[in-house]
Amino acid sequence: MKIAALQMVSTPRVDDNLATARRLIDQAAADGAKLVGLPEYFCFMGATDRDKLAIAEAPGDGPIQQMLSDAAKQHGVWVMGGTLPIRSGDPDYVMNANCVYAPDGSLAARYDKMHLFRYDNGRESYDEGRVLRAGDAPMSFEAGSVRVGLSICYDLRFPELYRRITFGAEKPCDLIAVPAAFTYTTGRAHWELLLRARAIENQCYVIAPAQGGTHENGRRTWGHSMVIDPWGEVLNVLPEGAGVVMAELDPARIASVRSQLPALAHRRCI
C-alpha cells in the first residue's frame, strides 16, 4: 500500500488551507497513494490560540469535515484529516480532533488529542490547555488489512499510549500516524528521534505529516514530514514547505522484522 504524508505551512485563512490540502490530496492520489495524512491544524493557524474557537465545527458538520469526506470519496482513498477544532460543549474550549474518512467518504474514526502541549523556555511559550480539552481514549482503525493507530503531535512523547494502541486489539498496529505541528526548537531536538523510537519499539511503520515553515503569525514549525519503516529507517522526508512524502507500506517488511527480532512477543508487564 502506498501511503502519503502531506506537509503544509497553514495560514489564518481556512479557505486557502482547504484549497492547499485538497491539491495535495489530489496529487498524492494521482501518484497512487491509498492512504493520506494531513498535519495537525492543517485547516487553520491563527494569530492566537483562541482564534480557533471561532472556526470550530460541530461533530459531523462543517466545511472542513465536508472537504475531507469529499476528497476521500472522490479518490477512493483513506484520508486522515490531521486535526481540526471540534466543539466540546463548552464555548471556551474545543477538542483537537483527528477525523479519518474511509474511501466511501464515511467517518471511519475520530481521535481527540489526549496529551496537551505546554512549553516555556523564556522566549517561546505555549499552553494548549488554555483552549483545548484533552481526549480520554486511544483510537485505532482498520484501513483494509492495515491496522492504524492514531496519535497527535505531543502524544509522541508518551510511549505508553502507543503500547495501549498496539496491545489493545487482536493484532498490533501496522502503522502509527502522528500528525503534528512541532515547534522549530523542539522539532530540531527531538522529532526524528522520537518518531524512530516509536517505530522501532512497536515494530511498525510510522507516518508523520507535519507543519513545516514560517507561518503568517510568526510561528516557525519544524516540518520534516516523514515515513519510517519498522526497523527505524527513514524512507522519505521533506524538510520544509508544502508537499507530499510518499512511501510503500510493505506487510512483508513488518512480518520480517517481527520474526527476526520478536520483541513484541517477549514483552512482559512490569
From TrEMBL:
UniProt-listed Gene3D superfamilies: Carbon-nitrogen hydrolase (3.60.110.10)
Protein name according to UniProt: Carbon-nitrogen hydrolase family protein
PANTHER family documented for this protein: DEAMINATED GLUTATHIONE AMIDASE (PTHR23088:SF27), NITRILASE-RELATED (PTHR23088)
InterPro entries named among the record's database cross-references: C-N_Hydrolase, C-N_Hydrolase_sf, Nit1/2_C-N_Hydrolase
Keyword Ribosomal protein: no
Gene Ontology molecular function, alphabetical: hydrolase activity, acting on carbon-nitrogen (but not peptide) bonds, in linear amides
Keyword field: Hydrolase
Limits of the CN hydrolase domain: 1-251
Pfam family, one: CN_hydrolase
The keyword ATP-binding belongs to this UniProt entry's keyword annotation: no
SUPFAM superfamilies per the UniProt record, alphabetical: Carbon-nitrogen hydrolase
